[in-house]
Amino acid sequence: MTVPADAPILTAAAMREAEAACAAAGVSLAELMERAGAAVADIVWRMAAGAPILILCGPGNNGGDGYVAARLLRVRGAEVRVAALGEPKTDLAKAARAAWTGEVEAFDERTAPAPIVVDALFGAGLSRRLSDDLAGLLARFAGRRVVAVDLPSGIESDGGEAWMPPLPAHVTVALGALKPAHLLLPTAPACGRTLLASIGIDAARTMRTLPPPPLPTGDPAAHKYSRGMVLVVAGPMAGAAELAAGAALRAGAGYVVLDGAGRAPLSAVICDDGDALAERAADPRLGAIVVGPGFPAGEGLTRSLDVALGSGKPLVLDAAAIAAGLTALASGERRAILTPHEGEFARSFPATGGSKIDRTLAAARQSRAVVVHKGADTVIAAPDGRVVAAWPGCPWLASAGTGDVLAGACGAMLARGGDAFEAAVAAVGWHIDRAARIGPGLVADDLIGK
Ligand SMILES: NC(=O)C1=CN([C@@H]2O[C@H](COP(=O)(O)OP(=O)(O)OC[C@H]3O[C@@H](n4cnc5c(N)ncnc54)[C@H](OP(=O)(O)O)[C@@H]3O)[C@@H](O)[C@H]2O)[C@@H](O)CC1
Ligand SMILES: [K+]
User: Fold this and answer.
1) Nearest CA owner, ligand 1 atom 31
2) How far is C-alpha 284 from the geometric centre of its chain's CA atoms?
3) 61 marked as binding residue
4) Domain coordinates in residue numbering, the chain
5) Would the annotation count 150 as a binding residue?
């Protein structure tokens, strides 16, 4: 499962606006459909490598893309059949159907499969769950190599509803931009490998997929404090804070202090016994404070959090510190990153609704902080509306302690200075990249090893 890096994401409503802007700029919707069909035909041609192709066409413009692809594949000499769910209903799809000079079979239980199946039944216009009859028809094609046009049929574009398809795709050709459903659970795995055919749509850059990890560039004039100084406040379960402190160093901080309980996870981490927290927090060289890993709610957390909040320093709040710090954060301006997993998110932001992207954006606006909503489909949102969706992450990160490592990495990136959202994006990218290099068998400690 892969998605293109740093690619635009549009909701269905934003897609309609982008389409309208294209039309206003002189690119007709018919031209966009021709480009979409050509992009699909190109990918299917290469995948089929001479094998017979069956294209399933629906009643809307998704089906229209299918008819265009069928025509262009036949021109190239491919062996193509088309099976349709009735006659096309839109003018564009009718025109595409008319330009296809081959036979159109009815799509029903008698439709014979082919090694390559192109799913052009429903895309962004899906308005309800597939009927059981239709789901049953599609299920007959499970195990074939399926190319989905724009979205696997049955998936709702904005990812708010889990209308799961019975027919997962090997490859999904996203048209114009990626859609939230390509990047959020539970729908994203059904898209297989998602490719983007930009077809000339000018998509806004506000929402995008995770950029590739930047090439490491060392500042030849750097010293340990200019690289970023991070203070990690340890609670009773010191192992979590130790992981965060080690991660801060590995993610590029020049100087890391572990305050409270705990031992240095790496020799270079400076340990304090917790008596001088206020003094440490007031250090003018300090670039970020991390509070929360291994620190359950209670008086100890409240005291430490008060010191961290009172220092005015950029903050990373994780675990119980998120809910405990919300009110103070929302009442002021500061660079802050919150790193909740789903349970912590639900406790801290119970009133948010919609897709994971909608909910994370609402949480960022409410808290006035950057929110890294962790999970296999991590979403990062800023109060100003920027979003990065980090699907597919790395499966080896699904183990204890990796969230503490991410909090420490956020601290390192934040301590460098600059924009908190970009710091969070860099930290998530670092975390996934490091995990992918380690691979199966990963434990959180490996992420802070050599
Ligand atoms: N954006 C772009 O720039 C471009 C977009 N393009 C393409 O257009 C696609 C969007 O096209 P679209 O809006 O016509 O919707 P589409 O997905 O074909 O489905 C609508 C039809 O399905 C029906 N229907 C819905 N749900 C159903 C259900 N559960 N079960 C049964 N029927 C159901 C619905 O019927 P109704 O709900 O009205 O009863 C209607 O007839 C987009 O994904 C991309 O492929 C490209 O061509 C060019 C550039
Ligand atoms: K489709």
Assistant:
1) 130
2) 35
3) yes
4) 12-208, 229-447
5) yes
